[in-house]
Amino acid sequence: MSTTEQTTAELRAARERFISQWGVISAAWGINRTMAQIHALLLTSPAPVATDEIMEALQISRGNVNTNLRELVGWGLIRIVLRKGERKEFFEAEKDVWRIFCTIARERQRREIDPALAVLRECAERTAKLKGTEAEEFHATMSKLGDFVGQASGAMDRVARSERSKIMPLIFKMLR
Amino acid sequence: MSTTEQTTAELRAARERFISQWGVISAAWGINRTMAQIHALLLTSPAPVATDEIMEALQISRGNVNTNLRELVGWGLIRIVLRKGERKEFFEAEKDVWRIFCTIARERQRREIDPALAVLRECAERTAKLKGTEAEEFHATMSKLGDFVGQASGAMDRVARSERSKIMPLIFKMLR
DNA sequence: CTGAACTTTCAGTATATATTGAAAGTACAA
DNA sequence: TTGTACTTTCAATATATACTGAAAGTTCAG
After folding, report:
1. What is the pLDDT at residue A159?
2. Cross-chain Cβ contact B123/A17 below 8 Å
3. Residues A52-92: pLDDT tens digits?
4. Is the CB of A132 under 7 A from strand C?
5. Residues of B numbered 119-138 whose beta carbons fall under 8 angstroms of chain A's beta carbons: which are they?
6. Euclidean distance between the first and final Cα of chain A, in Å?
7. pLDDT tens digits for B35-57?
8. Interchain contact, B18 vs A142, CB within 8 Å
9. B176: buried, middle or exposed (CB in 10 Å: 19+, 13-18, 0-12)?
10. A110 touches chain B (CB under 8 A)
């Protein structure tokens, strides 16, 4: 086997390992396994990829690929690329790690943290004026939880909106 | 209806809303819905609770309660309480929000981030010496991803190991 | 020991989630 | 306007995940 062939084989093996494992890991974080695999595929693809190629590579149906591509576009993690003279749509992933992180942080904030926060605040609010130890304790728990989630989410938001070059050095300096 | 009855009713309603919604929210983060509901129940209970009461409150089976209680103990989010003269086990949740946060951060780190990091490093490692644009790009992607996850996870780890009173003011000062 | 009080296990089942694939929809060149 | 090259949809189906409940296991007082 030539050196080039070995390189190709090893590269493909590493890439497949990444794609497969990224699916497993993402599932633990409440992200659709296939969506994560498609993302991993695009993330490690040297060029934009079309639906058929993804179907082939991951051995999944057209409908499945389509659904998850739209979802990834919705998250802002990939974009559609059109080639001149071709009707087909190709897709490419944002490859800057910092941008990926900010996108995910902001989307999860909007989709999941904000609604959670609303529930906590509502539960604190509606028990604010109740009398009695139990009611007061419940109110205190909800308030503390709400404040904490609010502060943590605000902090994350500011990190995700700032420039990497400005915020990251600060963080690492602080966490000396 | 007396004021006391109104208070009781309103408190119960708020508590049920919290328990139910906490389950929904947690599911979005890859946490078992029932586990989250049991946690919410204990978090808002004025006293330690035994299996039967949880079965009753959430209308779920003994086996289900048992499994999820063990899982919560495994996470370090609740502890077993024994009452003198009683054979039954009672459970109570850690109620300090900062401690809860640190526990969850450390456990997810150990269970999910560290393995993910290992995969990224392995993929970077095995493609380190390959020649060619595609291989080099893949290696660069894996390295960047690995470095980023490693740094972020290290930062989170240091936050979760520090004292709240020391680290939180610093963070908010920095994110001014 | 014995049995009552309690916990754990796990095969079977239910529920939720993801996937398929064919049909319908869309866009456009000729 | 028709045919072709594509994308989207969605009912049916498969798969993964969670839950049940009865039986087996454990613990311990008497």
Report:
1. 94
2. yes
3. 999 999 999 999 999 999 999 999 999 999 999 999 999 99
4. no
5. 119-120, 122-123, 126-127, 130-135, 137-138
6. 49
7. 999 999 999 999 999 999 999 99
8. yes
9. exposed
10. no
